[in-house]
Structure formats: structure tokens, C-alpha cells
Amino acid sequence: MPTFAVSILVQSCVEQELITLLEEYVTDHKVQLIDDVLNQRTRHLTVMLEDLYHAHNISAVIRTCDCFGIQDLYIAQKLHDYEVNPNIVRGASKWVNLEKYVRSEDSPARCIKDLKKKGYRIVGTTPDHNSASVHELDISQKTALIFGTELRGLSNHAKEEADELIHIPMYGFTESFNISVSAALILNELVARLKGSDVHWQLSDKEKRELKLAWYQRIVKRSDIHIKNYLDQSERKP
């Protein structure tokens, strides 16, 4: 067996051992709930936020991503700092991976570039009715949805880098929805379609295992001490 295959196997065994260790401190109900949630999680769809300046909007989108099973949320701040609002996020930040880009002029550009490297098709959201409707969006390929700032929407760079622009059909006088509402409406539509398709959208066994271990570490008190003691004992064994 090649060396890299052996190291992957060893890593998998260690992860599983640590999961078994920490699972002793998790209720049966929570164990089942985490397994059920992991089976509904996806990275086929992901969300990127471009320089939002209202912290409560970002926190609301985190909560929305968790509710719809979106595992990764990319936050690229150009001009504004961001901190989680615990009153809005309601603990969702424990379950969603936040990929934060340090505030800088080129953060959004770097984020988009990284998403493309990961094989994502970039889809920008806009109130412009000349763009395609969300109902027409092809989601057979991995898709990253970008939401722009509250007042100006997507930057020109994001629009230029996007493979496609989409809008939510509206029938009133108001031009657009709030960012978090837009995210919820679009994800509701796309996740429902994704689950009804033949696209392989679920996480791999490896991804599920990594997330389960990370989640157990967050919910088990003094998990770091449990793991350290276990690893120390393992090293002492002949």
C-alpha cells in the first residue's frame, strides 16, 4: 500500500477512535441528531457574502445556511469588520464552517478565485430582472452563490467574475429583498431541487467523519483534555 494511502488510513482510524471517545459524553438523542444532520449536509451549494456591513444580516445568513444544510459560508470583507451576533445566529455558527477573509481591498477577489479553484461555478445574485430567474438556474455543477452589499449589491468585479447572474422574480413596487431573506428564498428553491435530483450532493464519508469530530469537540466539555489524555495513553502503549 502506498505511503500516502497508509497515512490516510491511520488518520481515519485516529479520527474514528476520537469520535468514539467523545461520543461517550454525548446523549443518544444528540448522536442521532448529528448523524441525521450530516446526512443532509452539502458542499455542492455554498454561499459567499461580499462586504456586508450590517452584522445582523451576516448572522442571519449563517442561521439560514445551517437551516438549509449548507456547510460552508464564505465571508469576504473589503471595508467592514464582522463579528457574530449571538442573538441572531442562535448557535448556528457552531455547525457552519465560516471561511473568513481578512478585511482588505482584494478579499472578495481572492475569495472568488479560491472558489473557482475548488471547482465552483460562480453565480451572482442581483435585483436586475434582465438576468436569469433563480427558477432557471442549472445546479448540476457545484455552485457558489454571491450576495453583495446591502445598498449597492455586487461589486463590478464580482459581476465580471460571475459565470451567471440570477434574480428572484418579484411582483411589487419594492426593488429587492433584504439580504438574509434573499438567501433564504434562493436556498429554499435550490436545495429542494437539488434533493429531488440525481446529483450527488451529499458529503463524503471522510467529510462527515471530520465534521462529526469537530462538532463533538465543540459540544463536549473539556474535550481537549479528554483527547490529550487519550493520545498520551496511546503513545505509552508498546
Write the layout of secondary structure elements.
Blueprint: H1 3-23, H2 28-40, E1 45-50, H3 55-67, E2 72-76, H4 86-89, E3 97-101, H5 107-117, E4 121-125, E5 132-133, E6 143-147, H6 156-161, E7 164-167, H7 179-195, H8 205-219, H9 223-236
Parallel strand pairs: 1-2, 1-6, 2-3, 4-6, 4-7, 5-7
How many domains, in number, for the residues? 2
Q: Can you write the helix and strand succession as a string?
A: HHEHEHEHEEEHEHHH
Largest sheet: 7 strands, parallel
The CATH homologous superfamily name of the largest domain equals SPOUT methyltransferase, trefoil knot domain
CATH class of the largest domain: Alpha Beta
In order across it, which strands form the biggest sheet?
Answer: 3-2-1-6-4-7-5
Taken as a percent bin, the fraction of beta residues is: 5-15%
Distance between the termini: 24 Å
Mean of all residue-level pLDDT scores: 88
Helix content range of the residues, please? 40-55%
Using the CA coordinates, give the radius of gyration. Answer: 20 Å
Gross morphology: elongated
- How large is the count of helical segments? 9
By DSSP, the count of extended strands is: 7
**What is the CATH architecture assignment of the largest domain?**
3-Layer(aba) Sandwich
| Stretches with pLDDT under 50, minimum 5 residues | 1-10
CATH topology of the largest domain: Alpha/beta knot
Structural class: alpha/beta
Offer a concise description of the structure.
The protein folds into two domains: 4-36 and 204-236, no CATH class; 42-195, SPOUT methyltransferase, trefoil knot domain (Alpha/beta knot).
